[in-house]
C-alpha cells in the first residue's frame, strides 16, 4: 500500500454544507504560516474553535484580523463570517482505499446489526393492529419505519417493561385501562424516574396499545396528560448551565504526551484524539460521525492538506431528516512554516493533521470502510459502534485532564461536546442561526433550551478575548 506522509495543516472548524456562507476565524495574517490559511471553502458553513495558547491563564492581548495571531492565552478565539473561493480537491486514490480488509459494498456500510428479537416482538402488536385494519404488509412496514431504529428499539424496551408489569397483575397490556397505565406510571415516578422518562413510557405504550374509547390514544387521554403535567410540578427538571468540563484544559492535555508526538502515539491515543477533535470541531452527533467513510470520494483532502471533506455514507438519514446531510468541512490549523513556538504547539491541535495521521495508521488494521474502527482485540479493525465511540470521546476528555495535570471531571457525556462547542461559538459572536445550521438543530429553541451553557464560568474563560 502506498505510504502517505502525515502533513501539518491549519484552523479548527466545524462544517456543514450551506449555500450561503462560511463561518471562519478572522485571518491572523496574510502571510503563510501565521494562523488561518488564506483560502476558504465556498458553499460550506463551518464554525471554528481556535485555541491561541495552550496554557489557561497565560497573558497577552488578542488582535483579531491583525498582523499577528491571537495571543490572548485563550484556547478559543473569535469567529467571523467570510466568503471565499472554492478550493481544488485531492481525493484519496481510487483503487487505493486506505483499508487492508475487504471493502464494504453494501449501502448499509455502518454495519449495523439487524433488528433484535426483542425489537421485533415489541413491534409485533403495533404492526398487527395495522394489518387487522386491512393495510397491506408492505404499507405496514413503511409505516413502522417512520420512527428511527433507535426510537423503535427504545419504545420496544419500554413496552416490554409495561407488558411484564401487566402480566404480573393478570392484565392484557394491549387492552389495559387508563387506570392501569396511570398506576404503572405512578410506580415508576415513585421509583425516581423523571417526567421526561415517563413521557417516553407514555409514547411507547401509545404506540402498541389499542386506542381507548372515542379513538383517543393513551398519550392524548386527559387524565394521562394531567398526570404528566403534575409530575412536572412535583419534580421540575433541573438542568445545569455550567459545563462539566473545560475545553481549554482538554485541548491543553491533547497537546501533551501520551497524545503527542502523534505519529508515534499508540493506536488508542491516536483514535481518542482524532475522534474528539472531529466531535468538537464539527458539532456533529456521534451517529453523524459513525456514518463517515474512508471509501474513495467520501474522504477528500484539498491540495496542501489545508482542508478535509468528510461525506456521510450513501443513504444515511440524520436524526433531523429535514436537514440534508452534507460534508463535514475541516480546515487546517496553524500549518508550517511556523513563526513561533506557540504556532508550532497550536498545530498539534489541527484536526486535518490528526485525521490524516489516523486514516493512514488505521489502514494497517481496518476491515471496513467506516472511518472509525476498533483498535483493540477481539474486534480490531471492525466498525466502531455509537456506544463505543461515545466512550472514546469521554475517555479522551478524562485522559486529557490527566495529561494536563488536572483531576478528571465527573459525569462527562460524549454529547456534551455539541453544547460546549456551540456555546463557545455563540459567546464569540457567531450568529445563532449559523450555529444551528452547522449542528443540525431544527430550531434555535433546541439550542437555547438544551445546549446553551455558561462557558464564561469555566477556568479557561478568563483568558478568552473580550
TrEMBL record:
Residues 51-119 are annotated as: Disordered. GO terms for molecular function: DNA binding. Residues 71-81, 96-115 have a biased composition (Polar residues). Keywords: DNA recombination, DNA-binding. Residues 134-213 form the Core-binding (CB) domain. InterPro entries: CB, DNA_brk_join_enz, Integrase-like_cat_sf, Integrase_recombinase_N. PANTHER family: CORE-BINDING (CB) DOMAIN-CONTAINING PROTEIN, PHAGE_INTEGRASE DOMAIN-CONTAINING PROTEIN. This is Core-binding (CB) domain-containing protein.
